Structure formats: C-alpha cells, structure tokens
C-alpha cells in the first residue's frame, strides 16, 4: 500500500480544511462521517515515514546537491586540484596548484597563459586560501564557470545557458593539469 509523503498530507489537509469549513460548516457536531474522515487523514502525522524522500533530489538543481568544495590529486600529473563554489553567484571555479619547480610558478604575465585551453581561459593566478582545508596554496592557476553561455545560479539567466557541473569542472581541472605538466620544463 502506498503511503503519503508529509508534503502530500499537508496538501490534502489544507484542501480538506477548506472543503470542511466551506461545505460542511453547518454540521459542526464533530460526530459526522466528514469530521471522522478529517481526523483520520489530518491527525498527527509526525511519525509518517517519508519513503519517497530519497527521490526528492530529482527535483533539486545540481548546485543544490553537489558539494561546494572538492580537493583531489590528478593521478596522471600528480598536481593538486581544487574546485570551489562561488559563495554568492553559486557557479563553480577550478584551480590547479603548481609546484615551485614549474617554470610558470609565480608568473603573472598574461602572455604565458594565452595558449592554455581551459573553460573561459585562465582567470586567476596567484596565492589562494582554501578555508575548507585550512590550507593556503602558494601558487595556483584557476578558471571559472561564470562566462557568457554559462548558467550562473546566483543571477538571472536566459534559457540558453548551460550549468557546468562538478563532473565538468573536474574534467577541466584534469585538462588544465595535463597542459601545465607538459609546460613544466
């Protein structure tokens, strides 16, 4: 037998209350079959098991269910990667930490990054604090997913935008790490 979710019971009871007060207001004896139905359906349902709650995530947007922060080491390069959600705009940003021995370490010259292909281009270079880990990376290259054509949850969007999810940003971090590894020497 299918059980009602708490949300469904709330909806039913709200409608029953309206129906009861509008249509049955003349019979307030409390003994009518209508009153019994109301008490049965709308009794204290705090103990209801919401067996369908696990499926409710299908109605949530990816940025509501994804992690706001992720750290991993790219296996093919050994570079440390970070993904961080922008606190207000809610889009994801990706970062790759460079080792001190890398020839681009500490470089702030834009010309060094023109040939690197990553979503939206390199938009950040420098020292970066990751509060979630209580860690400061001395030098990272980063990109963000808040460009034209990107769906940015914290702002008004149009229908053509695409949300760049955690899987997409993870792949872009790996792509960036691979290119940086090739430029290491």
Could you walk me through the main structural features you see in this protein, from its secondary elements to its overall organization?
- The chain has two domains: 6-59, no CATH class; 62-182.
- With 185 residues, the protein is α+β, with helices and mostly antiparallel strands.
- α1 (6-23) runs antiparallel to α2 (33-41).
- 26% of the residues lie in helices and 18% in strands.
- It contains four helices and five strands.
- Strands 1-2-3-5-4 form a five-stranded antiparallel β-sheet.
- The protein starts with 5 loop residues before the first helix and ends with a helix.
Main sheet characteristics: 5 strands, antiparallel
Shape: elongated
Strand pairing plus helix content: what structural class?
alpha+beta
Q: How many runs of DSSP E, i.e. beta strands?
A: 5
Provide a brief overview of the structure.
The chain has 185 residues and is of the alpha+beta class. It has helices at residues 6-23, 33-41, 62-65, 166-182; strands spanning 69-73, 80-85, 92-97, 124-130, 135-144.
């Amino acid at each position: 037998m299918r059980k009602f979710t708490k949300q469904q019971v709330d909806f039913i009871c709200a409608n029953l209350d309206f129906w009861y007060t509008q249509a049955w207001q003349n019979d307030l004896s409390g003994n009518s079959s209508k009153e019994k139905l109301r008490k049965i359906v709308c009794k204290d349902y705090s103990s209801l098991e919401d067996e369908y709650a696990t499926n409710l995530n299908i109605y949530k947007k990816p940025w509501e269910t994804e992690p706001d922060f992720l750290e991993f080491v790219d296996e093919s390069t050994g570079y440390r990667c970070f993904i961080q959600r922008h606190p207000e705009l809610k889009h994801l940003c990706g970062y790759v930490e460079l080792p001190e021995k890398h020839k681009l370490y500490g470089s702030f010259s834009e010309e060094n990054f023109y040939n690197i292909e990553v979503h939206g281009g390199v938009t950040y270079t420098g020292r970066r604090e990751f509060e979630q880990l209580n860690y400061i990376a001395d030098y990272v290259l980063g990109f963000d997913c808040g460009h034209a054509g990107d769906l940015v949850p914290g702002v008004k969007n149009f229908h053509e935008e695409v949300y760049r999810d955690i899987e997409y940003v993870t792949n872009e971090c790996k792509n960036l790490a691979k290119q940086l590894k090739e430029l290491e020497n």
